[in-house]
Amino acid sequence: MSFVLLILFGALVLMAAPGMERGPALSTIDALFTAASAVTVTGLTVVDTAEQFTWLGQLWLLVCIQLGGIGLITLTTMLIGALGKRLSLRSEMLGMLPVRRHDRPEVWEVAIGVAKFSLAIELVGAIVLFLLWLPHFSVGEAAWHALFHSISAYCNAGFTSIPGGFARFQDAPLTLIATSILVVLGGLGYLTFEELIRWWRSSKATRDGGRIRFQGSRRLSSHTYAVVVTSAVLLVGGWILFALFEWADTLAHMSVIDKITNAWFMSVMPRSGGFNTVDYAHIGNASATLTMLLMFVGGSPGSMAGGIKTTTLAVIVALGMSRFRGKRFVEIKDRAIPQGTIERTIGVVLLFIAVLIVSFFLLGWIQGAGLNSLETRLLFLPIAFETLSAFTTTGLSMGSTADLAYPSKLLLIVLMFIGRVGLFSFFAAVILRRSQPPAFVRLAQEDVIVG
Length: 451
What we know:
Layout: H1 2-16, H2 28-39, H3 49-52, H4 55-82, H5 89-93, H6 107-133, H7 139-154, H8 173-188, H9 190-202, E1 203-208, E2 211-216, H10 222-246, H11 256-268, H12 285-297, H13 310-324, E3 331-332, E4 335-336, H14 339-367, H15 373-378, H16 380-391, H17 406-421, H18 423-430
Antiparallel strand pairs: 1-2, 3-4
Helix pairs in contact: 1-2, 1-4, 2-4, 2-17, 4-6, 6-7, 6-8, 7-8, 8-11, 10-11, 10-12, 10-13, 13-14, 14-16, 14-17, 16-17, 17-18
């Protein structure tokens, strides 16, 4: 409900408050779409943020991004803490906070930790970007753009206050690296970083033959191990594949260094970052497919990112490997994954795919009205790309967002909202469970032939 109210209030301010816009006034649907995109930290836009909004309008969007990214979590948690209550398991499961692996957190501890960590990262990011952009802008412009993009990048929002966006930074590798680091940090999640820092502080360097190994006195949890390994594989794998696919295409006019950094940028941004240095309407089919796969996975639990999450992919891969090897248990880092977690993982993936399929049908039907079969067929990839980008709160686009029909924009608003609060959180809030039989009731089993 907090997200809904913030979206409505954000849209109302964009339409009614004076001094927000430079160009023609936004329509109701466009204001609602823009506010929803900011609050859900998606980044899809129907207007050019830098051209449409004044400094005041951009500031309001930044407030919506910050509130949608970390503000609602922190403020709600601190409110519960002020009432002297512990965070309920239901609130944890409904996505208010990522659940700790071994203990129930004190709300003040997590709230203050999230706020401090996030603000520190954003401040450092803003300083770095300010120093990088000072030669290209006035002091005031450099400071504003640096602050805006540091928050937007860390919150995985993808909004830009610079005319032309990040395309102007194709030949600025330090800017691309700094921005991508902010996006990666925002996509990993606070609790993952908290555990990694504690593990690093407790680790000792030992020499094993000619190799130096770091061995922590604290064991990394299976959750953190899955997040780190899966994220690393996706980032490096995507980096190599994008370089391979686009080296002689959209990256052809760049220097070798710029090709490498832009390929890295293309690997990071589909994981919910949303910034782009190349026109995604001009990338090849292989790169478009890879981008959609990375959007589908997204970031990690408890982070700013959307998608099915890295841990979900890790459990699915571990499940497949265990069945292929004939093992009784699904293992990650020498620990068996509970059956309930496996069932929830499969449920997340199936529900995610089901929502996407229905959305593909609806958006294709709406956008294809009045067009012949050939024209509608040409719309399929942009529509699929746009739908997946909204549902995973990524914000990348092939340029068709502004041309969407009114019902299509409403559909994407709903998808952005569901993608931000989480599938299980959304359906747990709207579907009553009273129809389920009592826990002691067991139905008779009957087998079916599959495969």
